[in-house]
Design brief:
Blueprint: H1 6-15, H2 17-52, H3 55-100, H4 111-122, H5 126-148, H6 159-187, H7 193-206, H8 208-241, H9 250-284, H10 291-300, H11 302-319
Helix pairs in contact: 1-9, 2-3, 2-9, 3-4, 3-5, 3-6, 3-9, 5-6, 5-7, 5-11, 6-7, 6-8, 6-9, 7-11, 8-9
């Protein structure tokens, strides 16, 4: 059984409709940018191929032109990933946390502006939030690999293959687990995001069975639903790009995947995020980070030790003291 309330999840999503709409607008814009850039590049390549060679050259030119356009948008998104996490995901998490704790949005403020204000109070710069998020994911990967490595020592036929599949699914669920820890940092009003992340990871480790069970089932649900969205997206994407010379076959498939992923990020991910944040808060209720689990994580992950170093450095910087020397990493 799942450890979240589906009715409450839908209620919270309805209460954060401004953010849902904001996510839809952002990811719809990204999808259009991909279609325009890929289609424009394919069209230019097609015409150049026709002029310089023949019909075969036109097809080849369309492919390479589409690839250039697709790569340009992908590169722009790579550099914008910190902004998307800072404004879109973290802002939504911040508002969600307030609503989960029955704290109203102040009058006269929109959800998006209020979410951005909360995130900025916890993470002064987008690069800090991005750094915290990346370290959390690395620690969770190391921890999950460790707790699942028992299969390598059990002589049960087929178990290792099954565990590899489970590990792959768990890897897909990390994006939701790290969002739960970001929610914890925001909820606890931590002025030191590195220390807040460290405590959040320890609390995850203390309750990993319950959290993994829910995260894995939700990740599977999300990707099954995303596949259904992909099948539905093929027809409208095909109709949209049909007028572009040479943009069919391979590129139609890629752009349909982009459209499905955008809808997943805009609609499915907020649902799963709301569920897993509920589970995380339920699991850690009344608990404190355990020193024993902190020691275990220190022995498992160099990135966890890095969290402790960054937290100590921030405290030392505020107090005017020199930070402690970093420990040697295994």
């Amino acid at each position: 059984m799942w450890d979240f309330d589906i009715g409450k999840t839908f209620s919270l999503m309805l209460r954060t409709l401004p953010f849902i709409g904001f996510r839809l607008a952002i990811y719809f814009g990204i999808t259009l940018a991909y279609i325009a850039a890929t289609g424009g590049g394919a069209g230019i390549g097609y015409m150049l191929g026709r002029i310089l060679q023949d019909a075969d050259g036109a097809g080849s030119g369309a492919f390479w032109g589409g690839l250039v356009g697709f790569s340009v948008v992908s590169g722009a998104l790579y550099f914008a990933r910190e902004y998307l996490l800072y404004i879109v995901k973290a802002g939504h998490i911040a508002v969600l946390v307030h609503l989960l704790d029955d704290r109203p949005i102040p009058e006269g403020k929109g959800q998006i502006a209020y979410g951005a204000q909360i995130v900025k109070a916890r993470f002064v710069e987008a690069s800090v939030l991005f750094g915290v998020d990346q370290i959390i994911k690395s620690i969770l990967q190391a921890f999950n690999r460790t707790v699942l490595s028992l299969s390598e020592f059990l002589p049960i036929p087929g178990l290792t293959t099954g565990m590899r599949f489970i590990t792959a699914v768990i890897h897909l669920s990390l994006t939701y687990l790290d969002e739960a820890i970001l929610a914890y940092i925001i909820r606890t009003h931590s002025e030191n995001p590195w220390a807040g992340a460290r405590d959040g990871v320890i609390l995850y480790a203390q309750n990993y069975r319950m959290l993994l069970k829910n995260a894995v089932s939700l990740a599977i649900f999300a990707w099954i639903l995303s596949f259904g969205i992909f099948l539905l997206a093929i027809a409208p994407v095909a109709a949209l790009v049909a007028w572009i010379p040479g943009l069919a076959g391979f590129w139609l498939l890629i752009l349909a995947i982009v459209a499905a992923y955008a809808l997943k990020a805009a609609l499915v991910d907020p649902f799963v995020m709301t569920c897993i944040v509920q589970v995380y808060f339920k699991a850690i209720e009344g608990q404190r980070p355990s020193p024993e689990w902190a020691e275990r994580l220190n022995s498992i992950s160099a990135r966890f030790r890095e969290l402790g170093e960054k937290a100590a450095a921030l405290v030392a910087g505020k107090s005017g003291l020199s930070p402690p020397p970093p420990k040697a990493r295994a």
